[in-house]
Fold this sequence. Notes:
Blueprint: H1 2-24, H2 31-83, E1 93-99, H3 106-115, E2 120-122, H4 125-137, H5 141-159, E3 167-169, H6 177-186, H7 218-229, E4 236-244, H8 247-257, H9 261-264, H10 267-286, E5 294-300, H11 301-305, H12 309-319, H13 325-338, H14 352-374
Helix pairs in contact: 1-2, 3-13, 4-5, 4-7, 5-7, 8-14, 10-14, 12-13
Amino acid sequence: MRQKITALVVLTLTTSIILxxxxxRNATESTAALKALSELAAELSRVTIQHELAxxxxxxxxxxxxxxAQLEKDTSLTIRKESTTPTEEDxxxxxxxxxxxxxxxxxxxKSLFQVCGNECQPTKVGPLAWQQAAAVFLxxxxxxxxxxxxxxxxxxxxxxxxxxxxxxxxxVLGGLNDAAMDSIKKVGASLAWTQxxxxxxYPNWWSSPNxxxxxxxxxxxxxxxTAAAAKSxxxxxLKIILTTRNPHSIVKSVCEKRNFGREAxxxxxxxxxLVLGANALTSQIHTxxxxxxxxxxxxxxxxxxQAKPEAIDKLAHYLGFHNSLVQFRSFASSVNKRHTASSGNxxxxxxxxxxxxxxxxxxxxxxxxxxxxxxxx
Length: 377
């Protein structure tokens, strides 16, 4: 349409020129001259139309880019707007398990859950799941069945509460292990594990001859939550925090600082058990229910300890604190100010070459673990 209007304007102007020219020329003016002027006007019109077409063609990519940018802007606005509205997954009751090999920061998360108060509450599901795991590696299968049933009942009771906390801490927070053990004894069953539930790291507990097989089992937790979900209006969600750490720091923590290798028969044996723990956890993550029933997200301990804003905010969103980011940041800051690493009987410093060799085994095990977690986001 624009091209036609431009051509019409050119023709109109050219015709006016011809008329003026004709008025000013006498009747004897050459017809050939008028014909030449008309042909010039037609050529001018054709060239103008071609110019307009070329300009429009050059503008199309720019217009497309501008339209695409506007569409992306509108879409991002829509996403941000929709993110403020709770989704079905946002309404699920979060059960959080801090998963990682020994020496990767379970005590840091214990401190975090402690400072968040009533919004982070313990649950009997965690210690009952530990009783299940212990019943398996200690060959007390009767207790395993009892603990399995009680764990599902505990989750069902928690899901029925009129107001749920932001999260239930399945491990590290502690506080309900005695209640979990009492519930087993009340039904006449024997305890598979008679001590505290520990941090439920991989492996769990250090002063035991069975340490190499003392692995928690998050699939037991998933089974209890699935059973409870079938009888509940509110739906649970298992959220795994996979915590990892620089492997050299792990070696220093468990071998030199806390000297766990003393009970294991040496630092090399201790590291071998940690690698075994990482492999056990990897297998368990692979068999968890699909999202949104369960999710896994990886966090480096160093990022937490350094309070890196992007890492802290990522953890806040994952745990359900997206509407109170400032408060959660203050929680993390408080932890880093007050938290002191766990201690023990210090061992002898290792040779650098030996430490490097042990760390390389841990590094590979943690990479495999991270890959499994990333596949289960």
